[in-house]
């Protein structure tokens, strides 16, 4: 079947359209296939192939003009065929590369390291939740309490150095001064410790708090620790942990060279622990007994 008259891609290879009148190609080209048909005789370019419009020419009219058309069409056919083969090769390469890319494992980004606290021993969160001494004469912090100590012990005060502590109630006896200011003291205190503050139970809590106290209450001094007691401990059925140690140190301008350290952590319920802490320098052995009595009379309520 011959191609119908109309504009087709120029068989000469130009980026234009050439008109086919049903017998021969026109000498006129156009930039769009919707242009009006040209007037006058068609140029001897030879007919396009039958079938789909736009194909290159095949043998048609006889004579020299027809031969010229066949030679030009043959060259164009070779070029178009080569381009088609090249396109197939390129497409195959693209598909192979895409397949390899899709199946190749992709290195996952390195996991982000979890954020860490600037200090493993946070300080006290100061808060006020009721009177330090209740109507029974007991020093109270959360659910933990003990009978208030009399003179020479001070009235309960707060202490912001207690690691993980809240509502700290501290009774002290000043033992040494420097330039008219207190420099060394004995201490008995209680505080609230909330679950999630870096530990998950009384034993771990007692160990962590003890380590933090050694790093915070004695500055940069080297402190040697000799544990005398490290065991489970209970108050009215509430589980806890007790640590008693003798500390040794040599701090400039401090007469004391050691002291008794007592740390008790008790699970008081409701996701909360209570802390009892006592620090009695060796230069004040008379204060050990009041500290032990306070420990023995701890109450959870």
TrEMBL record:
Residues 105-135 are annotated as: Disordered. Keywords: Membrane, Transmembrane, Transmembrane helix. The chain crosses the membrane at residues 75-97. Residues 5-37 form the DUF2510 domain. Residues 122-131 have a biased composition (Polar residues). This is DUF2510 domain-containing protein. It comes from Microlunatus kandeliicorticis.
């Amino acid at each position: 079947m011959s191609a119908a008259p109309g504009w087709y891609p120029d068989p000469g290879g130009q980026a234009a359209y050439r008109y086919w009148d049903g017998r021969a190609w026109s000498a006129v080209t156009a930039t769009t296939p919707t242009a009006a048909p040209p007037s006058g005789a068609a140029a001897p370019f030879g007919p396009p192939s039958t079938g789909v419009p736009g194909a290159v020419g095949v043998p048609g009219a006889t004579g020299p003009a027809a031969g010229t058309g066949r030679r030009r069409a043959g060259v164009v056919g070779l070029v178009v065929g080569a381009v088609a083969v090249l396109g197939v090769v390129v497409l195959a390469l693209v598909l192979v590369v895409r397949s390899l890319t899709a199946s190749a494992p992709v290195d996952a980004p390195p996991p982000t390291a979890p954020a860490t606290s600037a200090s493993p021993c946070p300080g006290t969160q100061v808060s006020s939740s009721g009177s330090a001494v209740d109507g029974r004469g007991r020093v109270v912090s959360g659910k933990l309490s003990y009978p208030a100590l009399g003179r020479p012990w001070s009235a309960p005060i707060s202490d912001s150095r207690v690691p993980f502590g809240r509502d700290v109630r501290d009774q002290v006896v000043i033992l040494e001064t420097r330039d008219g200011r207190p420099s060394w003291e004995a201490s008995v205190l209680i505080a609230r410790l909330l679950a999630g503050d870096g530990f998950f139970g009384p034993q771990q809590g007692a160990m962590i708090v003890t380590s933090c106290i050694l790093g915070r209450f004695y500055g940069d001094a080297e402190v040697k620790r000799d544990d005398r007691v490290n065991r489970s401990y209970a108050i009215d059925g509430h589980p806890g942990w007790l640590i008693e140690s003798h500390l040794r140190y040599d701090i400039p301008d401090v007469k004391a060279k050691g002291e008794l350290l007592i740390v008790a952590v008790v699970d008081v319920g409701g996701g909360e622990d209570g802390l009892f802490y006592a620090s009695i320098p060796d230069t004040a052995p008379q204060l050990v007994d009041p500290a032990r009595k306070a420990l023995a009379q701890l109450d959870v309520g």
